Write a sequence for this structure.
């Protein structure tokens, strides 16, 4: 079990990541690629991704084993800003830290020569790592990024609603069943027994599409505390490559446009009905059409359902112009160990 110990100051400094973290998704997807869990969600993704891969998995596998520790420097906080920002921060990791973390990895398995060179600060080895991460990301993550974003945004809407309804206690209580809030300690199913004392530093919660089962924490307790947890999936289906939906032509009429515009950052069916001025049944029907068109995601939260926009839905509201992706800072509340240990 993992026990995360909060103080009052830590609760005030609890944050929820504002965007998916591309390096956490890239690294954790390597676990999903090699295991057989969640076949209904990841099965097609595995099959499609393997047809696009060359030697990337073989190169990265020693750094990210199927279970157990993998180096913290692979997932710098800049990953939330995008792949380029993330790999630049990875490349800037102090050599002493790279050496130390790879040394920990070498105690449990024999590392290939290029990773041993990486531990010694070889620039060519770092170039090889970054090249492999880029190539793997293009094969396994980039084609599905819109879907990953939409799923994580739907999860964030549920957590945000819990925060609005009951503050930090409600947010921590809303996390997946493998995590249990018994104030002032957040307990989580974990492959090893571990205590993480926040000591006033707060905690960054990072929902992840490819995290499965247990949450993931950084191994080094001196780093800014991060807890990556499995985002709730809205359906048991593989992430599709984003395409213009065939049913887009059904989106006509002022009422349906008003429904799309009223969903905003997320709302329940009853809230949507009040915003648009229609019955709950009508709001549900319109949201269903939008969902079939790939413009809305719906996630059940207790006895209610939460509707959020997909990236395509948001783009439609902007007139179809996606423009550059803006990056949100982690949202604050008012006032790494892999799926095994790290």
């Amino acid at each position: 079990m993992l026990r995360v110990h909060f103080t009052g100051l830590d609760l005030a400094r609890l944050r929820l990541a504002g965007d998916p973290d591309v390096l956490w998704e890239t690294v954790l997807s390597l676990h999903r690629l090699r295991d057989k869990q969640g076949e209904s969600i990841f099965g097609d993704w595995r099959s499609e991704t393997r047809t696009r891969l060359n030697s990337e998995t073989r190169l990265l596998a020693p750094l990210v084993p199927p279970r157990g520790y993998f180096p913290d420097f692979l997932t710098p906080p800049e990953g939330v800003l995008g792949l380029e920002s993330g790999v630049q921060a990875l490349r800037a990791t102090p050599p002493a830290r790279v050496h130390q973390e790879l040394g920990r990895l070498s105690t449990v398995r024999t590392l290939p020569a290029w990773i041993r060179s990486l531990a010694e600060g070889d620039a060519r080895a770092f170039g090889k790592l970054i090249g492999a991460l880029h190539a793997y990301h293009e094969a396994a993550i980039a084609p599905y990024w819109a879907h990953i974003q939409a799923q994580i945004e739907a999860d964030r809407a549920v957590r945000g609603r819990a925060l609005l309804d009951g503050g930090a206690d409600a947010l921590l209580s809303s996390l997946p069943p493998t995590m249990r809030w018994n104030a002032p300690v957040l307990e989580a199913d974990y492959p090893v027994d571990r205590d993480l004392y926040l000591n006033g530093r707060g905690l960054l919660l990072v929902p992840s599409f490819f995290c499965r089962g247990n949450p993931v924490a950084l191994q080094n307790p001196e780093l800014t505390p991060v807890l990556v947890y499995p985002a709730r999936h809205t359906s048991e289906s593989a992430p599709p490559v984003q395409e213009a939906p065939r049913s887009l032509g059904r989106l006509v009429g002022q009422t349906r446009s008003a429904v799309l515009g009223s969903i905003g950052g997320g709302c329940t069916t009853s809230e949507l009905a009040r915003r648009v001025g229609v019955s709950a049944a009508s709001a549900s029907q319109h949201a269903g059409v939008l969902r079939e068109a790939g413009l809305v995601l719906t996630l059940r939260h207790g006895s209610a359902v939460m509707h959020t926009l997909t990236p395509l839905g948001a783009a439609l509201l902007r007139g179809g112009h996606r423009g550059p992706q803006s990056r949100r800072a982690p949202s604050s509340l008012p006032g790494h160990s892999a799926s095994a240990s790290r």
Observations:
- The CA atoms of residues 100 and 340 lie 20 Å apart.
- The chain is about 45% helix and 15% strand.
- The radius of gyration is 21 Å.
